[in-house]
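Lab meeting notes turned into a lecture example. A postdoc, R.K., suggested we walk through two folding results consecutively so the class can see how the record format repeats. The first protein's sequence and structure tokens come next.
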Amino acid sequence: NMDSTLHYIHNDSDLSTNSSFSPEEERKSKVQDVVPQALLDQYLSMTDPSRAQTVDTEIAKHCAYSLPGVALTLGRQNWHCLKDTYETLASDMQWKVRRTLAFSIHELAVILGDQLTAGDLVPVFNGFLKDLDEVRIGVLKHLHDFLKLLHLDKRREYLYQLQEFLVTDNSRNWRFRAELAEQLILLLDLYSARDIYDYLRPIAFSLCADKVSSVRWISYKLVSEMVKKLYMASTSTFVLDLINELVEKFCRCRKWSGRQTFVFICQTISEDDCLPMDQFA
């Protein structure tokens, strides 16, 4: 119901206005006319460290949980009222507070629009990418939802960082890698054939050789979708190169597990009609 709620709160002229604020406007007191000002002031005061220590240690987490709803109510034209509070919560010492924001940053990006997202949310997003696994999983689960809101040139910058998701604080955290494979399937629609071949292909092949079977099964689907995407691209050399590498890396692998992987990938490609049968043969 997000779209209808947005339409209800903001009229069309409001949605199309320029979202960037000058430094002078940023310095203005946090005054708005959507909700009673005393109510907003009370909410903003929740991030005061002395209050968190004396009243409730969980108060910052509750504040972070409610922030997208407050932002939606106030509208993007009043984001300057919340910006400082958001940045304070994003750098909170408690990882649970940062984790809460990481899970909702894609929702906030929809509310704020592309200009405010690029200026105010992307730096926070980048910080979460380097955080603890408990925080990183929040941005990973909604990676596609966030990146699709960015302009193409900004989106391409994250291609270099996707490889880092293969490294976790705990190597036994296989669900992290399974989620990465799921997100990469969605990300195929956001990138060109060359980007898929150059950046996503090596990650997919690494996941196909994972020690955990659940990760491998999702990765077979990822590779088959990659084959389909590259075949549909105008440049056919990428799909031929990918198929040749599949044969070389898995079909002719000395280990039986590698050859088994090749069979499973072929099965998935066939079942999902990723290639015409003559091309498959």
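The second example is placed directly after the first for contrast:
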Amino acid sequence: ALELMDFKNALEQFQNLVEKMIIQKKKESSGLYTKGDDEIDYDKFCTTTRTLFGPAVKDHDIQTFFRKIMSNLDERPEWLEIFGCFTGESDGMPSQLKESMVFLVSEKQQITHSVVKRKDVIKAIVKVPLLDFTVTASQKGVITIFNNQRNSFYSYYFYFHQDTSWITGCDFLPQLKYVVAVTESTVLIWDYKSKESKNKCFVIKPMKNCLLCVSTVTPSGHLPKDTILMGDDKGYVYLLTMTSDHFIMKQYKSEKESQFSVLDSETFNIVKRKLHDDWVGKVKYIPALKRFGSCSTDGINSFVLDDIKRLEDNLPVKEFSVPKGVNAFTYCGKAKVIVTGG
């Protein structure tokens, strides 16, 4: 009973310490605080906490608690956290499961390719679960397929003699079995399985604005066609549907021996709608919601989430604004939440 009384007393003093520190920091931010002997900095907070609770508290828990308070003065963390304890579903977790929440990287494998140039950067990484491989695209034009089963990879290096545009994104077309990539001025379709002409590439151009991102719309059926979403530097989101008919030999507009076959963009039905007033940083179709999302650095029309039909009409779209815009977003089906990063 005496130990319990002592702990309650120590806990009360600790909570008073936290309140004083919060009041002090709020006064500092408003310019009303004058530094003196009563100032509570991290060292004083750490020393006082150790005096109150002794070895029951750890250095990293004290540091984490202090940082939480400093990052948000209006939302106080629970006092349990000073002992490394957290309320919620994780309370009853065995220690073995708690340890598994930490990701340890014991080894890594570096994969290089002779075609990749120095000072090049990866712009996109796409996992294709059904075929068990990963597609990467570099800024200067190297598109690579890493096959996890056969421990090998295919690669293709896009080089334009008259076009110095950088690749800005890529994805995989599940029905046509092609890789799609966008540059600042073109859409590239890579037939990595082509036997007649090794590493055959179709180039769709011209595109009026600078393309910045691309994403495949998951098809509902098994028709030989794929649809992609694209975003540009003017705030437009595009919807482009491609079928196998677009890649018939009679529609090619290039030399017979050329690996590049140019397709006129006018022969495609490209739908577009201006959704943002700044660059479109990312577009993505979310099958679980049957909606597409697009984000922008636009501080007013920062994130749009709506039916893909909205790109074909002028009806209002569901959107929200974030100061300084949104650079990235993702959806978690298990938690049913969308997370954005600005």
